[in-house]
Amino acid sequence: MSKIGKKPIFIPPEVKLEIFDQKIRVQGPKGVLERELPSLLKIEIKDSYLHLSPKDDTKKAKSLWGLYRTLIYNMIEGVTKGFEKKLEIVGVGYGANIEGKELVLKVGYAHLVRVPLPDDLNVSVEKNIITIQGIDKEKVGNFAAKIRSIRKPDAYKGKGIRYFGEEIKLKPVKKIVASSG
To answer: In Å, how far are 27, 48, 80, 138 from 12, measured between CA atoms?
Structure first.
C-alpha cells in the first residue's frame, strides 16, 4: 500500500475539478492545468475530497498511485497559490536582465547567454536574484534547473548560478609544497 497514495486530497471551494475519460482538468483563480492519467488508476470525488486508487494489484499500478496523487495535489496547489523558485548569481561582473522575451545572462563567458522565456512563466530579475513564478511546479523547476545548468557553482570560489539559500561546500585550494634538496 502506498502511504502517499492513500491520503485523500482536499479540494478547496475555489477550485473546479473535471474528470473525463482518463484526463483531469483543474481550474482555479490562477489558471487551468490538465493531465492525462494512466488507465491503471481509478479516481473518484467524495464530498470535497479526491481519492485515488489502483484498479489492480500490479507493481506498475502501485508505483503510479503515489506519483499521480502528488502530481494532482501539485496541480491544485498551483492553481490556488502558485509556485516560485529563486536563483542567485554569485561572481564579480556576473549579472542578468530581461530584454523583451529573453533572459540575458552575463556569467563569465566571452558572450552573453540568451535564454528564451516560456509564455506561461513569470520571470523577474532584481539585482543578482532571478525569480521564476508559475502554476505548474514541473515547468518552474525545469526552467530553474535549465538556468542553473548554464553556469553551475564553482567548487573552489563558489561563483556561478545557485538556488537561493543553497549552501556550496568549497574545496580547499591546493598548496604547492617546496621541496628541499
So the answer is: 11, 7, 8, 21
Other residues' Cβ atoms within 10 Å of the Cβ of residue 5:
21
Segments of the chain assigned E as strands: 9-10, 16-20, 23-28, 31-36, 41-46, 49-54, 83-90, 95-99, 102-106, 113-116, 122-126, 129-134, 160-163
Contact (CB, 8 A) for 102 and 119: no
Amino acid at 138: E
User: C-alpha 118: how far from its chain's center?
Assistant: 14
* pTM score, whole prediction: 0.87
pLDDT tens per residue, range 95-143:
999 999 999 999 999 999 999 999 999 999 998 999 999 999 999 999 9
Q: How far apart are CA 43 and CA 24, in angstroms?
A: 9
Q: What are phi and psi of 148, to 5 degrees?
A: -65, -35
List 26's β-bridge partners, or say none: 17, 33
CA separation, residue 47 to residues 7, 12, 63, 88, 146 (Å):
15, 11, 26, 43, 40
pLDDT of residue 162: 93
- State the residue for C-alpha cell 484498479: 55
